[in-house]
Design a protein that fits this description.
Blueprint lengths: L1 H20 L3 H12 L4 H7 L6 H40 L19 H15 L3 E2 L5 E3 H4 L11 H4 L9 E3 L5 H9 L4 E10 L10 E11 L4 H16 L5 E8 L2 E10 L23 E10 L1 H4 L13 E8 H9 L12 H4 L4
Parallel strand pairs: 1-4
Antiparallel strand pairs: 2-3, 4-5, 5-9, 6-7, 7-8, 8-9
Helix pairs in contact: 1-4, 2-4, 5-9, 5-11
Length: about 350
Protein backbone atom coordinates (compact mmCIF):
# COMPACT_ATOMS: atom_id res chain seq x y z
CA UNK A 1 0.00 0.00 0.00
CA UNK A 2 2.78 2.49 0.70
CA UNK A 3 4.15 1.78 -2.77
CA UNK A 4 0.73 2.44 -4.42
CA UNK A 5 0.15 5.61 -2.40
CA UNK A 6 3.66 6.82 -3.20
CA UNK A 7 3.17 6.18 -6.90
CA UNK A 8 -0.12 8.11 -6.85
CA UNK A 9 1.55 11.05 -5.13
CA UNK A 10 4.40 10.97 -7.64
CA UNK A 11 1.90 10.79 -10.52
CA UNK A 12 0.03 13.80 -9.11
CA UNK A 13 3.19 15.92 -8.85
CA UNK A 14 4.26 14.89 -12.35
CA UNK A 15 0.88 15.86 -13.81
CA UNK A 16 0.78 19.21 -11.98
CA UNK A 17 4.26 20.08 -13.24
CA UNK A 18 3.34 19.16 -16.82
CA UNK A 19 0.15 21.22 -16.61
CA UNK A 20 2.01 24.28 -15.31
CA UNK A 21 4.49 24.11 -18.17
CA UNK A 22 1.84 23.63 -20.91
CA UNK A 23 1.76 26.55 -23.34
CA UNK A 24 -1.53 25.89 -25.16
CA UNK A 25 -4.98 24.49 -24.60
CA UNK A 26 -4.24 21.81 -27.20
CA UNK A 27 -1.28 20.65 -25.12
CA UNK A 28 -3.50 20.60 -22.03
CA UNK A 29 -5.96 18.36 -23.81
CA UNK A 30 -3.14 15.91 -24.53
CA UNK A 31 -2.18 15.97 -20.84
CA UNK A 32 -5.78 15.38 -19.77
CA UNK A 33 -5.94 12.29 -21.95
CA UNK A 34 -2.54 11.15 -20.71
CA UNK A 35 -3.22 11.49 -16.96
CA UNK A 36 -7.02 11.19 -16.73
CA UNK A 37 -8.08 9.32 -19.85
CA UNK A 38 -9.45 5.79 -20.03
CA UNK A 39 -6.01 4.35 -20.69
CA UNK A 40 -4.17 6.47 -18.11
CA UNK A 41 -2.25 4.98 -15.20
CA UNK A 42 -4.59 6.62 -12.67
CA UNK A 43 -7.67 5.09 -14.30
CA UNK A 44 -5.93 1.72 -14.22
CA UNK A 45 -5.34 2.08 -10.46
CA UNK A 46 -9.00 2.96 -9.87
CA UNK A 47 -10.18 -0.02 -11.93
CA UNK A 48 -7.85 -2.38 -10.01
CA UNK A 49 -9.01 -1.36 -6.51
CA UNK A 50 -11.45 -4.25 -6.40
CA UNK A 51 -8.57 -6.69 -6.79
CA UNK A 52 -6.67 -5.34 -3.74
CA UNK A 53 -6.88 -6.89 -0.32
CA UNK A 54 -9.86 -5.44 1.61
CA UNK A 55 -7.68 -3.50 4.02
CA UNK A 56 -5.93 -1.64 1.11
CA UNK A 57 -8.98 -0.72 -0.94
CA UNK A 58 -10.07 2.27 1.16
CA UNK A 59 -6.70 4.03 1.51
CA UNK A 60 -5.74 3.43 -2.16
CA UNK A 61 -9.12 4.55 -3.43
CA UNK A 62 -9.00 7.66 -1.26
CA UNK A 63 -5.47 8.50 -2.47
CA UNK A 64 -6.44 7.89 -6.11
CA UNK A 65 -9.52 10.14 -5.88
CA UNK A 66 -7.47 12.87 -4.22
CA UNK A 67 -4.84 12.65 -6.99
CA UNK A 68 -7.56 12.84 -9.67
CA UNK A 69 -9.18 15.86 -8.01
CA UNK A 70 -5.82 17.64 -7.78
CA UNK A 71 -5.08 16.93 -11.45
CA UNK A 72 -8.53 18.13 -12.59
CA UNK A 73 -8.20 21.32 -10.54
CA UNK A 74 -4.77 22.02 -12.01
CA UNK A 75 -6.07 21.45 -15.54
CA UNK A 76 -9.11 23.70 -15.03
CA UNK A 77 -7.03 26.58 -13.68
CA UNK A 78 -4.48 26.31 -16.44
CA UNK A 79 -7.17 26.03 -19.17
CA UNK A 80 -8.87 29.20 -17.87
CA UNK A 81 -5.57 31.08 -17.90
CA UNK A 82 -4.61 29.92 -21.39
CA UNK A 83 -8.10 30.52 -22.79
CA UNK A 84 -7.92 34.14 -21.71
CA UNK A 85 -4.46 34.69 -23.17
CA UNK A 86 -5.31 32.92 -26.42
CA UNK A 87 -8.46 35.03 -26.77
CA UNK A 88 -6.40 38.19 -26.32
CA UNK A 89 -3.99 36.96 -29.00
CA UNK A 90 -6.84 36.20 -31.43
CA UNK A 91 -8.45 39.57 -30.83
CA UNK A 92 -5.15 41.30 -31.49
CA UNK A 93 -4.50 39.25 -34.63
CA UNK A 94 -8.07 39.64 -35.95
CA UNK A 95 -8.32 43.36 -35.28
CA UNK A 96 -10.47 45.10 -37.92
CA UNK A 97 -9.48 48.44 -39.35
CA UNK A 98 -12.89 50.13 -39.49
CA UNK A 99 -11.45 52.89 -41.68
CA UNK A 100 -11.00 50.45 -44.58
CA UNK A 101 -13.85 50.04 -47.09
CA UNK A 102 -15.93 46.93 -46.58
CA UNK A 103 -16.12 44.10 -49.06
CA UNK A 104 -18.71 44.88 -51.74
CA UNK A 105 -21.91 42.85 -51.31
CA UNK A 106 -22.67 40.24 -53.93
CA UNK A 107 -24.48 41.72 -56.90
CA UNK A 108 -28.21 41.24 -56.23
CA UNK A 109 -29.20 41.36 -59.89
CA UNK A 110 -28.91 43.47 -63.01
CA UNK A 111 -30.74 46.23 -64.81
CA UNK A 112 -33.32 45.10 -67.33
CA UNK A 113 -32.27 45.72 -70.94
CA UNK A 114 -35.07 48.28 -71.36
CA UNK A 115 -33.82 50.20 -68.32
CA UNK A 116 -30.24 50.02 -69.62
CA UNK A 117 -31.33 51.36 -73.01
CA UNK A 118 -33.42 54.14 -71.46
CA UNK A 119 -30.48 55.31 -69.35
CA UNK A 120 -28.14 55.28 -72.35
CA UNK A 121 -30.62 57.39 -74.34
CA UNK A 122 -30.96 59.81 -71.41
CA UNK A 123 -27.17 60.10 -71.14
CA UNK A 124 -26.88 61.00 -74.83
CA UNK A 125 -29.43 63.80 -74.67
CA UNK A 126 -28.27 65.13 -71.30
CA UNK A 127 -24.85 65.44 -72.95
CA UNK A 128 -26.50 67.50 -75.70
CA UNK A 129 -27.97 69.92 -73.15
CA UNK A 130 -31.44 68.44 -72.65
CA UNK A 131 -33.04 67.99 -69.23
CA UNK A 132 -35.10 64.92 -68.22
CA UNK A 133 -38.79 65.45 -67.40
CA UNK A 134 -41.31 62.89 -66.14
CA UNK A 135 -45.08 63.07 -65.82
CA UNK A 136 -48.26 61.10 -65.04
CA UNK A 137 -49.11 57.87 -66.82
CA UNK A 138 -52.82 58.43 -66.12
CA UNK A 139 -53.55 61.47 -68.22
CA UNK A 140 -56.35 63.84 -69.18
CA UNK A 141 -57.76 63.66 -72.70
CA UNK A 142 -56.90 67.37 -72.99
CA UNK A 143 -53.14 66.79 -72.69
CA UNK A 144 -53.04 63.45 -74.49
CA UNK A 145 -55.01 64.57 -77.52
CA UNK A 146 -56.69 68.00 -77.62
CA UNK A 147 -53.69 70.20 -76.73
CA UNK A 148 -51.59 68.23 -79.23
CA UNK A 149 -53.88 69.19 -82.11
CA UNK A 150 -55.94 65.96 -82.04
CA UNK A 151 -59.46 67.32 -82.44
CA UNK A 152 -62.27 65.23 -80.90
CA UNK A 153 -63.21 63.70 -84.26
CA UNK A 154 -59.62 63.46 -85.55
CA UNK A 155 -58.98 60.04 -87.20
CA UNK A 156 -55.51 59.84 -85.63
CA UNK A 157 -57.21 59.20 -82.28
CA UNK A 158 -58.36 55.82 -83.57
CA UNK A 159 -54.74 54.90 -84.33
CA UNK A 160 -53.92 55.38 -80.65
CA UNK A 161 -56.85 53.53 -79.10
CA UNK A 162 -56.07 53.14 -75.43
CA UNK A 163 -57.50 52.27 -72.01
CA UNK A 164 -59.94 54.79 -70.58
CA UNK A 165 -60.54 55.40 -66.88
CA UNK A 166 -63.43 57.73 -67.69
CA UNK A 167 -64.56 59.79 -70.66
CA UNK A 168 -61.87 62.40 -69.97
CA UNK A 169 -59.16 60.31 -68.22
CA UNK A 170 -57.07 57.62 -69.85
CA UNK A 171 -53.74 55.80 -69.79
CA UNK A 172 -51.51 57.99 -71.94
CA UNK A 173 -50.77 56.72 -75.43
CA UNK A 174 -47.46 58.57 -75.77
CA UNK A 175 -45.19 60.79 -73.70
CA UNK A 176 -46.08 63.75 -75.93
CA UNK A 177 -48.52 65.22 -73.35
CA UNK A 178 -45.43 66.32 -71.47
CA UNK A 179 -44.67 68.74 -74.30
CA UNK A 180 -47.65 70.85 -73.30
CA UNK A 181 -47.21 70.24 -69.55
CA UNK A 182 -43.58 71.36 -69.77
CA UNK A 183 -44.36 74.50 -71.78
CA UNK A 184 -47.14 75.37 -69.30
CA UNK A 185 -44.64 75.66 -66.44
CA UNK A 186 -41.51 76.80 -68.30
CA UNK A 187 -41.30 79.70 -70.75
CA UNK A 188 -38.96 79.32 -73.74
CA UNK A 189 -36.30 78.23 -74.31
CA UNK A 190 -37.04 74.58 -73.56
CA UNK A 191 -34.76 71.62 -74.20
CA UNK A 192 -36.14 68.45 -72.60
CA UNK A 193 -36.70 64.74 -73.10
CA UNK A 194 -39.60 62.88 -71.51
CA UNK A 195 -39.12 59.13 -70.96
CA UNK A 196 -41.80 56.84 -69.56
CA UNK A 197 -44.35 54.06 -70.01
CA UNK A 198 -47.26 54.43 -72.42
CA UNK A 199 -50.29 52.26 -73.24
CA UNK A 200 -52.17 51.22 -76.37
CA UNK A 201 -54.48 48.37 -77.33
CA UNK A 202 -51.86 46.50 -79.40
CA UNK A 203 -50.35 43.06 -78.93
CA UNK A 204 -48.18 41.21 -81.45
CA UNK A 205 -44.48 40.52 -82.17
CA UNK A 206 -43.72 44.24 -82.55
CA UNK A 207 -46.39 45.80 -80.28
CA UNK A 208 -47.39 45.35 -76.65
CA UNK A 209 -50.19 47.00 -74.63
CA UNK A 210 -47.54 48.69 -72.50
CA UNK A 211 -44.24 49.97 -73.84
CA UNK A 212 -41.65 52.65 -73.16
CA UNK A 213 -41.12 55.84 -75.10
CA UNK A 214 -38.85 58.86 -75.08
CA UNK A 215 -40.23 62.18 -76.26
CA UNK A 216 -37.96 65.10 -77.10
CA UNK A 217 -38.79 68.80 -77.29
CA UNK A 218 -36.65 71.81 -78.19
CA UNK A 219 -38.24 75.27 -78.48
CA UNK A 220 -36.20 78.44 -78.94
CA UNK A 221 -35.65 81.21 -81.44
CA UNK A 222 -34.31 80.36 -84.90
CA UNK A 223 -34.54 76.56 -84.53
CA UNK A 224 -34.83 74.80 -87.89
CA UNK A 225 -35.31 71.33 -89.29
CA UNK A 226 -31.54 71.26 -89.78
CA UNK A 227 -31.10 71.48 -85.99
CA UNK A 228 -33.39 68.47 -85.60
CA UNK A 229 -31.37 66.54 -88.14
CA UNK A 230 -28.11 67.37 -86.37
CA UNK A 231 -29.44 66.29 -82.96
CA UNK A 232 -30.78 63.01 -84.35
CA UNK A 233 -27.49 62.33 -86.13
CA UNK A 234 -25.56 62.73 -82.88
CA UNK A 235 -28.04 60.45 -81.12
CA UNK A 236 -27.84 57.77 -83.84
CA UNK A 237 -24.04 57.75 -83.79
CA UNK A 238 -23.89 57.57 -79.99
CA UNK A 239 -26.27 54.59 -79.87
CA UNK A 240 -25.52 52.71 -83.10
CA UNK A 241 -21.92 53.67 -83.92
CA UNK A 242 -19.97 56.63 -85.24
CA UNK A 243 -20.19 55.42 -88.86
CA UNK A 244 -23.97 55.82 -88.94
CA UNK A 245 -25.85 58.27 -91.14
CA UNK A 246 -29.49 59.31 -90.95
CA UNK A 247 -32.14 60.33 -93.43
CA UNK A 248 -35.46 62.10 -92.96
CA UNK A 249 -38.59 61.03 -94.85
CA UNK A 250 -41.81 63.00 -95.10
CA UNK A 251 -44.56 61.76 -92.78
CA UNK A 252 -47.54 63.04 -90.78
CA UNK A 253 -48.22 63.64 -87.07
CA UNK A 254 -50.99 65.94 -85.79
CA UNK A 255 -48.68 67.92 -83.52
CA UNK A 256 -45.77 68.56 -85.96
CA UNK A 257 -45.61 70.34 -89.30
CA UNK A 258 -43.66 69.39 -91.30
CA UNK A 259 -43.42 65.82 -89.96
CA UNK A 260 -40.69 63.30 -90.75
CA UNK A 261 -39.66 59.72 -90.10
CA UNK A 262 -35.99 59.30 -89.20
CA UNK A 263 -33.99 56.32 -90.46
CA UNK A 264 -30.47 55.26 -89.49
CA UNK A 265 -28.11 53.52 -91.89
CA UNK A 266 -28.11 49.79 -91.20
CA UNK A 267 -25.29 48.79 -88.90
CA UNK A 268 -25.41 45.14 -89.99
CA UNK A 269 -24.82 45.67 -93.71
CA UNK A 270 -23.24 49.12 -93.46
CA UNK A 271 -26.08 50.65 -95.45
CA UNK A 272 -25.56 48.53 -98.56
CA UNK A 273 -28.60 46.32 -98.05
CA UNK A 274 -26.54 43.17 -98.65
CA UNK A 275 -24.54 40.87 -96.39
CA UNK A 276 -20.88 39.99 -97.16
CA UNK A 277 -22.01 36.82 -98.97
CA UNK A 278 -24.17 38.91 -101.30
CA UNK A 279 -27.49 37.87 -99.79
CA UNK A 280 -30.21 40.34 -98.82
CA UNK A 281 -29.81 41.76 -95.33
CA UNK A 282 -32.84 40.55 -93.33
CA UNK A 283 -32.44 43.29 -90.68
CA UNK A 284 -33.06 46.23 -93.01
CA UNK A 285 -34.86 44.05 -95.63
CA UNK A 286 -32.32 45.08 -98.24
CA UNK A 287 -33.03 48.81 -97.98
CA UNK A 288 -29.87 49.75 -96.09
CA UNK A 289 -31.93 51.84 -93.65
CA UNK A 290 -33.69 51.22 -90.33
CA UNK A 291 -36.58 53.35 -89.10
CA UNK A 292 -35.94 54.56 -85.55
CA UNK A 293 -38.37 57.39 -84.72
CA UNK A 294 -40.87 60.01 -85.79
CA UNK A 295 -40.22 63.76 -85.53
CA UNK A 296 -40.96 67.17 -86.96
CA UNK A 297 -41.30 70.88 -86.27
CA UNK A 298 -43.83 71.68 -83.55
CA UNK A 299 -47.15 72.66 -85.15
CA UNK A 300 -48.04 76.33 -84.45
CA UNK A 301 -51.47 75.14 -83.28
CA UNK A 302 -49.80 73.48 -80.28
CA UNK A 303 -48.26 76.81 -79.26
CA UNK A 304 -51.77 78.23 -79.17
CA UNK A 305 -52.52 76.17 -76.04
CA UNK A 306 -49.52 77.69 -74.19
CA UNK A 307 -49.41 81.14 -75.76
CA UNK A 308 -49.93 82.84 -72.39
CA UNK A 309 -46.56 81.46 -71.24
CA UNK A 310 -44.51 83.14 -73.95
CA UNK A 311 -44.92 80.70 -76.85
CA UNK A 312 -45.68 83.07 -79.68
CA UNK A 313 -45.37 81.08 -82.96
CA UNK A 314 -44.23 84.27 -84.68
CA UNK A 315 -41.23 84.48 -82.33
CA UNK A 316 -40.30 80.91 -81.34
CA UNK A 317 -40.22 77.60 -83.11
CA UNK A 318 -38.95 74.17 -82.25
CA UNK A 319 -38.88 70.48 -82.99
CA UNK A 320 -40.19 67.36 -81.30
CA UNK A 321 -39.41 63.67 -81.71
CA UNK A 322 -40.56 60.40 -80.20
CA UNK A 323 -39.04 56.94 -80.15
CA UNK A 324 -39.89 53.56 -78.65
CA UNK A 325 -37.19 52.37 -76.26
CA UNK A 326 -38.04 48.75 -77.03
CA UNK A 327 -37.52 49.38 -80.74
CA UNK A 328 -34.10 50.90 -80.13
CA UNK A 329 -33.16 47.89 -77.97
CA UNK A 330 -34.52 45.43 -80.54
CA UNK A 331 -32.53 46.98 -83.38
CA UNK A 332 -29.37 47.36 -81.37
CA UNK A 333 -29.34 43.82 -79.96
CA UNK A 334 -31.12 41.87 -82.69
CA UNK A 335 -34.14 40.89 -80.58
CA UNK A 336 -36.75 39.37 -82.94
CA UNK A 337 -39.87 39.63 -80.76
CA UNK A 338 -40.84 42.56 -78.56
CA UNK A 339 -42.63 40.25 -76.12
CA UNK A 340 -39.33 38.66 -75.09
CA UNK A 341 -38.58 41.76 -73.02
CA UNK A 342 -41.52 40.95 -70.75
CA UNK A 343 -41.37 37.14 -70.54
CA UNK A 344 -39.01 37.25 -67.52
CA UNK A 345 -36.91 34.45 -69.04
CA UNK A 346 -33.51 34.62 -67.33
CA UNK A 347 -31.88 32.81 -70.26
CA UNK A 348 -32.70 35.88 -72.34
CA UNK A 349 -32.23 38.63 -69.74
CA UNK A 350 -28.83 37.40 -68.52
CA UNK A 351 -27.35 37.91 -71.99
CA UNK A 352 -27.28 41.64 -71.30
CA UNK A 353 -25.12 42.27 -68.19
Amino acid sequence: MPDAAGRLDELRREAEAAVRSASSTAELEDLRVRYLGRKSELTGVLRGIGELPPEERGPVGQAANAARSAMESALAERIAALDASELDERLAADRIDVTLPGDPPPHPGRLHLITQTRREIEDVFVGLGFSVVEGPEIEFDYYNFTALNFLPDHPARAMQDTFYVSDDVLLRTHTSPLQVRTMEVQPPPVYAIMPGRVYRRDSDATHTPMFNQVEGLAVDEDITLGDLQGVLLEFARAIFGQEREIRLRSSYFPFTEPSVEADVSCFQCGGSGALPDGSRDPLCKGSGWLEILGAGMVDPNVYGFVADNGYDPERVQGFAFGMGIERIAMLRHGVPDLRMFFDNDLRFLEQFP
